[in-house]
Amino acid sequence: MQQDTKHILLETERLVLRRMRLDDAEFVLNLLNTKAWIKYIGDRNVKTTEAAREYIKEKVLMGYSINRLGMLLVELKADGKALGICGLVEREGLEAPDIGFAFLPEFMGRGYALESAEPILNYARVKLGIPKVQAITIKENESSIRLLEKLGMTFIKTIRIPNDEEELMLFEIEFKNRI
Question: Which candidate, 13, 36, 12, 56, places its Cα nearest to that of 103?
Fold first, then answer.
């Protein structure tokens, strides 16, 4: 499959991380309705392709234009197959950008989340000059906790973010040697 180089932001050995487009709606619809997304992130009530397009427009594309941050689509370099998302978002209640990631079930456990999150953190440090990145997760999400620790993030405390009653674990990484 031909890669859309105009939207590519980052690349790894196996992956391409690119900005999402409205034509990614079918993938977003599938991802947001996986058991893991609903269990660990929450039901976003995106049940149609049109609702997925609106979600991309309102939640993803706005982030790109407002603050140069946002979730990127993670694709296999070899064939352009969409695997998941990874990126940085501004979240109310956090003092630094939040790194997030989610993958379709069939692509979990293959190292794709780590492989996509590492260049995101490097991009935040080098290109955006961000001094620290945070992450939140529920304590039951053991795979995310392990990944955050592999990324060098440290558990800071439990918090509640505005408009959410759930207690979350807050992790962060400070970049000592900013470029």
Answer: 36
- Give the CATH number of the domain where residue 35 resides: 3.40.630.30
15 lies in some domain: yes
Domain span at residue 89? 5-174
Q: How far apart are CA 59 and CA 100, in angstroms?
A: 13
Question: Do the domain assignments include residue 179?
Answer: no
Answer yes or no: is 166 within a domain.
Answer: yes
pTM over 0.85: yes
Task: Please give the structure tokens belonging to residue 75.
Answer: 């694709």
> In one letter, which amino acid is 60?
V
**What domain count does the chain have?**
1
Give the chain's radius of gyration (CA, Å).
15
Return per-residue pLDDT of the chain as tens, 179 residues: 344 555 678 999 999 999 999 999 999 999 999 999 999 999 999 999 999 999 999 999 988 877 677 899 999 999 999 999 999 999 999 999 999 999 999 999 999 999 999 999 999 999 889 999 999 999 999 999 999 999 999 999 999 999 888 999 999 999 986 55
